[in-house]
């Protein structure tokens, strides 16, 4: 797309030091996000997929400025977010909003629905009481709640309804970017569809841009235009949804799709061995090699470069990028036999 | 029927409270055959977890009130067993796998010791013999390096490993029936796939019956033989798994199946069921599902439809079942 | 003008908030007694000159020394000075309540403000405040009190001052822990995202979030302070001219009440202290139960089960059978 990206990440790194340990031991680090670059364009839904420990939440937090990156830049609407002054930072950031996974803890139980939804407006200032009330009623209607709910408290509502209140709050100031962090994982199955449909409708109606974080590839397929697959902080595969589902290249993506326990498609199942390793001091090479059924010797120490395999479809995997002649000569392309 | 391992007849559970009575389970029957995997599917608040606790007779009388006609385990009526006799049954004949391994395991005991205890109590082995069996059990569930893992504490293991420890504990005494309550809900997708594989293969190889309680229909599709669908305390449908997925009879089942996103979906929107599950204290009149049902008529509002048992073994509770040619199944 | 109106409204709101809170405590059955007693004590303290039959400070109203209880002197008179013990008891309420409440409220202010700042702002402020807390906790308060009162004279003002200076630390720590938890809740994050200033979040989200804990702690602190004050007065560190229950106990002991068997002189202040402490602790514990609804529920269930109507329960069960199908909506027993 030739439009200007709303948000751009350039070689983002986020490390956390691990507390504890003896004074003379080498300090351990959790490499939560490692060398992630991406661009998100207005109006699209960008999916970030991965399991726990993959860094997707940290990535989202870095995007909205909750976490300071240890390297790289976050450029939001052409501003380098972390080099802004405190006031500019706060102001710029309020054009981004977030919908949280747990509807129960995302609403202050002491605030009425009116107070909850109008809080961003109240903070921004410049609205009269009447204007705020009007807007809140508008928003309630948009998310499928009732006028009567205005003065009730969160405890009166079900999980799905709480999430709707959270959504109303998030869109109250017409944000440029809305980050949905696993918005339906904590809800009942029969309510998932309602909330997802609501998000889809709101996007069409209000021309919003979404970053959609999930571990459920089946949901992501319907909702997202482009997807980023992460594992242990690194990008494994990324591209348009169509391309990735039609032709999943990375063994991890394949495993995620196989794991979807789908009812109709008979796909060759890739069941991974072993557990998700700890993000503390991850492997030097490809971070996935220990569980990869196709791992080669070279995968242990040499990180795989992100290459464009087809239009709008990138993969970081030695199986596709191959090794240099020199490396092949050293026998690094030999498959690692069963086990580690 | 001598191939029925567990026969649960007319289970009712209520929880009296200040504001009213919570009707958790309203008269359900469940039959589990030997070696069969039965899934009990429903959302939060439908009463499925309470059912599993009631089978194990783990519901305490305050706060619950239980009324059941019969709980028959392999010929034995355990309905009125004393607590002592039940303790003998639990672990040895019926064992349970809970959802949250972190709270089900003792955080200050190594996992090896906890599995040892099961062997020591039920098979009367001494410590050494029990440890040998424990290592065997850990290996069986696919835990690498079981000798050293057995010495770990629960918080040192990942979620997937903890769940496997629970599975090892459950299978330790080769019980006749294992009840697994949402065993993989808290796990990551790829780990979930692994754990379910283990559960399934162990269940089949040891011919143990499994009662799988979950809200996730996709888990059911890959693990179960027979499915009971529960809604707001009542069983609304029972069928073999292939039948249920191909030709669901109850509108709720249809709705649940529809709302699972599938890889083959082409439309952007998801099929949704309006509103949410009824509050267990304030249930609608008539059929509990009628406020959300697109096929509802006046009959549905007045009277709860009775559970019909069909000749082909299926059960359906609905005045207007779908995919139904009246009286028997099709396709 | 508008600003004054705003401030007035805010004060009014906080009073309403406190009023609602008191209503909550009143509704709780165990809370009624606490509130009634505190109300009674406050009444006695405020209207002491009207209630007490004699003015114990007035030297001309002294009577014969060491009288036993009678209709003129409900609790008799002191052995050393001939003051009416009943009147002393009533005037003593003032000191105890004043010291308890003022100290409690001052500790609440300091502890809450510093705890919230330490917890929410974190960083240098947190380190500084916590190190001060650590230092304060190490210093032995009693010897220090003795030293200071000897240097600056014995007065309740000094005692309150010392209590407050050392007392805020415990509260600050507890509040800080809760603030750390609240800080991580999603609604605080949402507010920060929307651009909420630190002040906005601390006053609108954090402060209300710790209010229950704060009030509960304050009630319990008041109770503890009253006992402490009685102890200090007993040791003679309080204002020698004022009348306090602790001092009454001290005088009773030195005046020979035990020797002469004047039990009423000892019991009177003792009961006073007991009632005051009991009242505040009652309120504090009731608040803890309100804070922690689980505690309340478990005791309620047993009572509920005892009063269950068995035929009704049987009806409910029968109603679930397939044939009798008229399920009723929301039955309330």
Write a concise keyword list for the protein shown above.
heterotrimer; A: 340 residues; alpha/beta; Rossmann fold; eight-stranded mixed beta sheet; four-stranded antiparallel beta sheet; 12 strands; 30% helix; 21% strand; C: 333 residues; mainly alpha; MetI-like fold; 0% strand; globular; disordered C terminus
Describe this structure in words.
The complex is a heterotrimer of chains A (340), B (331) and C (333). In chain A, strand 9 (226-231) and strand 10 form a beta hairpin. Helices cover 30% and strands 21% of the residues of chain A. Chain A has one domain: 3-Layer(aba) Sandwich (Rossmann fold). Chain A has helices spanning 56-63, 86-93, 113-124, 129-142, 159-171, 189-206, 217-223, 241-246, 251-258, 318-321, 325-329; strands spanning 7-17, 29-40, 45-49, 71-76, 79-80, 96-99, 177-181, 210-214, 226-231, 234-240, 306-310, 313-316. Chain A starts with 6 loop residues before the first strand and ends in an 11-residue tail after the last helix. An eight-stranded mixed β-sheet of chain B has the order 7-8-9-3-10-11-13-12, sandwiched between helices. In chain B, strands 1, 2, 4, 5 and 6 form a five-stranded antiparallel β-sheet that branches. Helix content of chain B is 32%, strand content 22%. Chain B has a domain at 4-231: 3-Layer(aba) Sandwich (Rossmann fold). Chain B has 331 residues and is of the alpha/beta class. Chain B has helices at residues 48-55, 83-89, 101-104, 111-123, 127-140, 146-149, 159-171, 189-205, 217-223, 241-246, 251-259, 298-302, and strands at 4-17, 20-33, 37-41, 65-67, 70-73, 76-77, 94-97, 177-181, 209-214, 226-231, 234-240, 308-309, 315-316. Chain B is globular and about 65 Å long. Chain C is mainly α and 333 residues long. Chain C has one domain (2-303): MetI-like fold (Orthogonal Bundle). In chain C, 76% of the residues lie in helices and 0% in strands. Classes of the chains: A alpha/beta (340), B alpha/beta (331), C mainly alpha (333). At the A-B interface, helix 5, helix 6, helix 7 and helix 9 of A face helix 7, helix 8, helix 9 and helix 11 of B.
């Amino acid at each position: 797309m030739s439009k200007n990206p709303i948000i751009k990440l350039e070689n983002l790194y986020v490390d956390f030091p691990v507390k504890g340990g003896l004074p003379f031991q080498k300090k351990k680090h959790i490499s939560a996000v490692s060398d992630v670059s991406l661009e998100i364009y207005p109006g699209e839904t960008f999916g970030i997929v991965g399991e726990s420990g993959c860094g997707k939440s940290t990535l989202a937090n870095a995007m909205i400025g909750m976490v300071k990156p240890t390297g790289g830049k976050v450029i939001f609407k052409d501003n380098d977010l972390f080099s802004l002054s405190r006031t500019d930072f706060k102001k710029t950031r309020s054009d981004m909003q977030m919908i949280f996974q747990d509807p129960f803890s995302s609403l202050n139980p002491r605030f009425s629905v009116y107070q909850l939804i109008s809080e961003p407006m109240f903070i921004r200032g410049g609205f009269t009481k009447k204007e705020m009330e009007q807007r809140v009623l508008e928003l309630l209607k948009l998310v499928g709640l009732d006028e009567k709910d205005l003065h009730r408290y969160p405890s009166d509502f079900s999980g799905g309804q709480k999430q709707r209140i959270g959504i109303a709050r998030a869109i109250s100031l017409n944000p440029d970017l809305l980050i949905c962090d696993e918005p339906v994982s904590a809800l009942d199955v029969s309510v998932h569809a309602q909330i997802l449909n609501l998000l889809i409708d709101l996007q069409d109606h209000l021309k919003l841009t979404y970053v959609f974080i999930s571990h459920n590839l089946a949901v992501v397929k319907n909702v997202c235009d482009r997807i980023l697959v992460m594992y242990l902080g690194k990008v494994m595969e990324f591209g348009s949804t169509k391309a990735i589902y039609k032709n999943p290249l990375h063994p991890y993506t394949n495993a995620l799709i196989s794991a979807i326990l789908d009812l109709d498609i008979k796909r060759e199942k890739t069941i991974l061995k072993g557990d998700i390793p700890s993000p503390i001091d991850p492997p030097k090479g490809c971070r996935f090699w220990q569980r990869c059924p196709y791992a080669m010797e070279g995968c242990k120490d040499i990180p795989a470069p992100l290459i464009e395999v087809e239009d709008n479809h990138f993969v970081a995997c030695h199986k596709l990028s191959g090794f240099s002649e020199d490396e092949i000569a050293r026998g690094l392309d030999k498959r690692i036999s069963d086990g580690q | 029927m001598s191939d029925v391992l567990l026969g649960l007849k007319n289970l009712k559970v209520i929880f009296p409270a200040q504001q009213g009575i919570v009707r958790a389970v309203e008269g359900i029957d469940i039959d589990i055959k030997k070696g069969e995997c039965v899934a009990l599917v429903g959302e939060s608040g439908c009463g499925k977890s309470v059912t599993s606790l009631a089978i194990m007779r783990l519901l305490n009388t305050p706060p619950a009130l239980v009324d059941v006609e019969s709980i028959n385990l392999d010929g034995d009526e355990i309905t009125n067993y004393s607590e002592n006799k039940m303790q003998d049954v639990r672990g040895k004949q019926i064992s349970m796998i809970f959802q949250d391994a972190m709270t089900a395991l003792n955080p200050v005991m190594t996992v090896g010791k906890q599995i040892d205890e099961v062997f020591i109590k039920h098979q009367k082995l001494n410590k050494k013999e029990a440890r040998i069996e424990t290592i065997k059990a850990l290996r069986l569930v696919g835990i690498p390096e079981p000798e050293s893992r057995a010495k770990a504490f629960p918080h040192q293991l990942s979620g997937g490993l903890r769940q496997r420890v629970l599975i090892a504990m459950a299978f330790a005494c080769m019980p006749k029936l294992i009840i697994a309550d949402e065993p993989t809900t808290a796990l990551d997708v790829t780990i979930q796939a692994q754990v379910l594989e283990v559960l399934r293969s162990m269940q089949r190889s040891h011919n143990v019956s499994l009662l799988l309680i979950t809200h996730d229909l996709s888990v059911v599709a890959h693990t179960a033989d027979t499915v009971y669908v529960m809604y707001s305390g009542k069983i609304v449908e029972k069928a073999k798994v292939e039948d249920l997925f191909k030709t669901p009879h109850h509108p709720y089942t249809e709705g649940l199946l529809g709302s699972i996103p599938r890889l083959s979906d082409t439309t952007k929107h998801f099929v949704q069921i309006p509103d949410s599950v009824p509050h267990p204290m304030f249930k609608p009149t008539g059929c509990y599902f009628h406020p959300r049902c697109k096929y509802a008529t006046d009959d549905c509002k007045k009277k709860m439809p009775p559970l019909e048992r069909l000749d082909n073994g299926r059960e359906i509770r609905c005045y207007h079942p779908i995919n139904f040619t009246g009286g028997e199944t099709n396709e | 003008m508008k600003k004054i109106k705003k401030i007035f409204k805010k004060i009014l709101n906080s009073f309403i908030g406190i009023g609602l809170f008191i209503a909550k405590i009143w509704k709780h059955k165990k809370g009624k007694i606490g509130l009634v007693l505190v109300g009674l004590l406050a009444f006695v303290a405020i209207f002491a000159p009207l209630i007490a039959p004699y003015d114990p400070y007035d030297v001309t109203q002294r009577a014969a020394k060491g009288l036993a209880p009678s209709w003129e002197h409900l609790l008799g008179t002191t052995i050393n000075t001939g003051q009416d013990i009943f009147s002393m008891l009533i005037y003593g309420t003032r000191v105890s309540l004043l010291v308890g409440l003022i100290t409690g409220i001052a500790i609440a202010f300091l502890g809450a403000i510093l705890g919230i700042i330490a917890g929410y702002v974190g960083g240098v402020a947190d380190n500084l405040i916590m190190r001060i807390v650590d230092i304060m906790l190490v210093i032995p308060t009693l010897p220090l009190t003795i030293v200071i009162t000897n240097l600056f004279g014995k007065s309740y003002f000094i005692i309150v001052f010392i209590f407050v200076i050392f007392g805020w630390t415990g509260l600050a720590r507890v509040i800080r822990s809760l603030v750390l938890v609240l800080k991580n809740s999603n609604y605080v994050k949402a507010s920060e995202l929307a651009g909420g200033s630190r002040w906005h979040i601390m006053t609108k989200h954090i402060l209300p979030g710790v209010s229950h804990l704060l009030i509960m702690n304050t009630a319990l602190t008041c109770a503890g302070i009253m006992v402490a004050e009685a102890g200090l007065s007993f040791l003679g560190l309080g204002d020698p001219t004022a009348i306090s229950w602790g001092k009454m106990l001290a005088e009773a002991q030195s005046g020979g009440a035990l020797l002469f068997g004047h039990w009423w002189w000892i019991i009177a202040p003792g009961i006073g202290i007991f009632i005051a402490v009991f009242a505040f602790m009652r309120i504090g514990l009731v608040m803890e139960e309100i804070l922690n609804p689980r505690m309340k529920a478990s005791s309620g269930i047993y009572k509920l089960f005892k009063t269950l109507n068995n035929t009704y329960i049987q009806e409910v069960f029968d109603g679930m059978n397939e044939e009798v199908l008229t399920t009723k909506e929301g039955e309330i027993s």
